[in-house]
Amino acid sequence: MREIIVGTAGHIDHGKTALVEALTGINTDRLKEEKLRGITIELGFAHLTLPSGLLVGVVDVPGHERFVKTMVAGATGIDVVILVVAADEGVMPQTREHLDICRLLRVKRGVVALTKVDLVDEEWLQLVEEDLGDFLRGTFLEGAPLVRTSAVTGEGLEELLVQLDALCQGLEPRPMARFFRLPVDRVFSMRGFGTVVTGTLMQGRISEGDPVIIAPKGIRTRVRGIQVHNRSVSESFAGTRTAVNLQAVEKEEVERGDVLIPPDSFLPTHMVDVRLEYLPHAGRPLKNRTRVRFHTGTSEILARVVLLDREELEPGGEALAQLRLEKPTVAVHGDPFVIRSYSPIRTIGGGVVLDGLPRKHRRPSFPQVVRRLEAMGTGDSLRVVLQMIEGAQLEGLSLLDLDRRLNLSPERWEEILEDARFLDGVVTVGNEGGASREDLIFVSKEWFQRLTREIVDQVEAYHASHPLEPGVPRDDLRGRCPSRPSPRIFAFALQTLQKGGLLEVEGDRWRRKGHRIDLGEDERHQLEEIDRIFQTSGLQPPSLKAVGEELGLEEKQVKDLAELLVRQGRLRKVKEGLYFSIEELERLRERMVRFLKEKGEIFPLDFKEMTGLSRKYMIPLLEYFDRIRVTMRVGDKRVLRRE
After folding, report:
1. Catalytic: which of 8, 17, 28, 195?
2. 0.70 surpassed by pTM
3. pLDDT digits (tens, 9 = 90+) for 581-591
4. Is 545 an active-site residue?
5. Among the CATH numbers 2.60.40.10, 2.40.30.10, 2.40.50.100, 3.10.20.600, which is that of 269-370?
């Protein structure tokens, strides 16, 4: 069951904490320093039952400009905002900044609470309300309910609850997801329980006993217990304020900005592709590679903005960019974010993550990347899936790869995999072998067809440059493909071409269907001459260079013809550049076997006396007999290998 999260926003000392206490009976200022100074420093949490009986979680954020990063962490995951504006001061700097942050974090609904109305007269109240109307024009709070309140007298509190109830009733449920994510906003230790972390569960469902990874640190632990609003529960769902008791983890090992995720789920990233909105009042253009503070979830990370479609971004503009982070984080398509300037620190923009696990883009690829990201920013999840698969080129993506980027529910995947647009645009590698869905690899049909054309072209080119060879070795063929396919997709493409009757294979060599070596009259004569030379040279054959000089041929021509004789069963290559007549090698093998059966062992000197060969031929031949498992080397000698 989904819980609604209500968050406060507004300038320091405008009465956010007092309002929350008046509504809930809970003072969210926990720290001694907060009570002494009378200001909120850390996030505060409470809960509230609305008139309809709906239970909502409440997040109270600090209003001081020094603690805006804490406010951003608290605003993550809220559904409805109470924008708090003090009647005696009106709109102030953090009123503007907090409203910007809420909009950038995709908060869609809210109510304006005009606090401290007991301190001013009616005429002043009307002026402040007019000013508020102008301030909110064009924002998501334009036309939102405005309620006059006083935490001292209780004025307007009932009406505020009614307005909140109405806003919460219309909220849609959060999309289902395969994996849970809980950004940590608070860490503490409880005697008898150990380390406890809290946060708003962004996605999925977390249950007691679940194994957990603390990302990006990679610490493995387990859920010892779960509480929601101080009540122990067995599980918690997306959109719920959740406290998780972690097993065998020290408090010092976890911090705000970490994320609880399941094992074998999301991967930490140092880069995110985003659609970036630069605020109109940012002041000056945002130049390429500007250093900024990147806020997503509850984390703050320094980053560089690499603009993909321009060199600088004017205030009020939007652009596609890659943010290169100085520390890793976990990000998923659709995550909102905020950026703040490095110095002086102030909110300058934000946007939405389009790809949480992108490649590092190089300038020549920027136009293609921009086209793909534009499509990902405007389509439904199916269109995003297709663009991500296209972006993976010939590496392909598995279902797990895609869920690490999108975190869709199994039910949504059923719909996508059966959609005609998916079936028309994607080649599924591994489907023919009865593999499980998790083992399948998806590759863009356009990229796969490009690969098959490349393979056929490279085979033809090899036939043209190596006319005496039966085909191109498989590994050589893959290395010749400019698109650099993964081994699995390359193998599937070869199978596809073989089934389609375009290629055939013999051993490890691939060739055009029906390709045969066609020797001209000159080549047949050269082949016969080379065969004659090696058949009559006994156990001391000449080098390829010497044969070429005798016949007036290039060394490469001699090698190609010698290899053809190897394939025809006339010669054997003992090592690179050294060829022997097969009949001569067979006679030598018989002599070796007779010697070993009689003597039991043979040393190099014995072999030299038996054959009269120099080391140039003797050592390669001894190693050859080891290799074909006639003999086995034991120290300096050879013995007959048992069958």
Report:
1. 17
2. yes
3. 999 999 999 99
4. no
5. 2.40.30.10
